[in-house]
């Protein structure tokens, strides 16, 4: 559970997206976004827990296309966020919107080289002498639970404070968020091209 929590908690593009969507569309949308990341974390947890070294090697080999694809997705999200009007009501997210937010975040997190490298480092340390004596399924469930817990706490905390933000503040957040997302996309692309 601590592995999932520690990989999910640092604020990056997914955290920013969760915060922005929670402020704009409510807790359900923020939680759907975060749970998409939790499922992707569990997928990488499964790769590490089952010791699929060939897949880890393949993912490292595919770092550049994954980074560029993830960066393109971040730029698209930044553009959509920049153009979106300020939502007046948090109760606008329907089931299709929630499913889209969830699926998009799964893909974005799976394409994030930082997530891949985090899991490679954690599971590399576990297999290098710090091995745990739990089954792979328990380990995967723990990663999923820890990551999901973080996204639940983040979206609930932001939703609880949503009313404290005036429309002017929310408009500023909606203007800064796409710039930060675009910055993450460019940074991710530069790192991928360098390495």
Automatic annotation (TrEMBL):
It comes from the Bacteria. It is a multi-pass membrane protein. The keyword Membrane applies. The chain crosses the membrane at residues 31-56, 62-79, 100-126, 138-161, 173-193. It is found in: Cell membrane. The keyword Protease does not apply. Coiled coil: none annotated. Keywords: Cell membrane, Membrane, Transmembrane, Transmembrane helix. InterPro entries: LeuE-type. This is Lysine transporter LysE. It comes from Hydrogenophaga electricum. The lineage of its organism: Bacteria, Pseudomonadati, Pseudomonadota, Betaproteobacteria, Burkholderiales.
